[in-house]
Design a protein that fits this description.
322 residues, alpha/beta, Rossmann fold, 15 helices, 56% helix, ketol-acid reductoisomerase activity
């Protein structure tokens, strides 16, 4: 874990960083960099819905190609499936010996982009959403990040990656040296099999099971969904072992019996299948196919979630609590 005191900020002194994309990570990183004294320019595709937000944040709106023209480091922070096209657009304008950076290893690890050999290729991946990255920075805290170098043309790519992580505020919490492959595989596995895949599915299934068993939807929501925030806070503060000790004997014993019954060998086997799909590139191919078709499965899933009984119960509770 590399902290601020071990990081030299000099590699970013007097340098210009082009942030390409102003979404969850792009906005937070641009603001944190600027507040750390780094010169930042922002590149957006023409007609982007983020133009007004960029201007209100005090940045000029430029095309990606224009933004990278005078940049020492171009951070490509658009969605993964768009990065290859964006790189092809900006590559001719990247000066010889510049650096290109990412906050996720997918595009490089799976060969969607083949950077020019004269470019440094770095990754700084904060381990959380951009909203939290920004709020922690403003509070004087930081978010742990993984950092890596895929191509070190200059011989100074690693110090640049560390300086960038420090400017984001991540050095306050710590930077872990990783690789594009490790970050990518671990992140995609988590998204598919754990926090973003399995956990919401478990919450939904638990809610539906209780409702089908005659429990009021609002009560089922409170039991199966609302308590997740409390659990996350306990795990963050005490760890999983400490969390078990902090709850009632009834809850702990219920978890002891129910947890292994749900997460059994079959579930672990399916998790291994998710990991295998990530490593083989099958997931990335499916993502590319989904993007090529204009995201029909994602659109359908979002619509189904919005129209479901769980969401209706959430909205009723929210209305009553106002």
């Amino acid at each position: 874990m590399i902290k601020d005191e071990a990081i030299d900020p000099a590699p970013l002194h007097g340098r210009t960083v082009a942030i390409i994309g102003f979404g969850n990570q792009g906005r937070a990183q641009a603001l944190n960099l600027r507040d750390s004294g780094v010169r930042v320019v922002v590149g957006l595709r023409p007609g982007s819905g983020s133009e007004a937000e960029v201007r209100s944040a005090g940045f000029d709106v430029m095309t990606p190609a224009a933004a990278v023209r005078d940049a020492d480091l171009a951070m490509l922070l658009a969605p993964d499936e768009r990065l290859a096209a964006i790189y092809d657009e900006v590559a001719p304008g990247l000066r010889h010996g510049a650096a290109v950076g990412f906050s996720h290893g997918l595009a490089i690890h799976f060969g969607l982009i083949a950077p020019r050999p004269d470019l440094d290729v770095i990754m700084v991946a904060p381990k959380g959403p951009g909203t939290a990255l920004r709020s922690l920075y403003l509070e004087g805290q930081g978010m742990v990040a993984l950092a890596a170098v895929a191509q070190d043309a200059s011989g100074a790519a690693w110090p640049l990656a560390l300086a960038y992580a420090q400017a984001l505020g991540c050095g306050r919490a710590g930077v872990i040296r990783s690789t594009f492959e490790e970050e990518c595989v671990a992140d995609l596995f988590n998204e598919g099999a754990v926090v973003w895949g399995a956990v919401p599915a478990i919450l939904q299934a638990g809610f539906e099971t209780l409702v089908a068993g005659g429990i009021q939807p609002e009560v089922a929501y409170l039991e199966c969904v609302s308590e997740l925030k409390l659990l996350a806070g306990l795990i963050e503060a005490r760890g999983i072992a400490g969390t078990a000790e902090a709850i009632s004997n009834t809850a702990e014993f219920g978890a002891l019996l129910g947890g292994p019954a749900i997460v059994d060998r079959a579930v672990r086997g399916r998790m291994e299948g998710v990991l295998a799909d990530v490593r083989s590139g099958a997931f990335v191919q499916a993502l590319s196919d989904e993007a090529e078709a204009d995201y029909p499965r994602l659109r359908a899933a979002r619509q189904k979630a919005r129209a479901g009984a769980l969401e209706a119960a959430r909205l009723r509770l929210l209305k009553q609590n106002r």
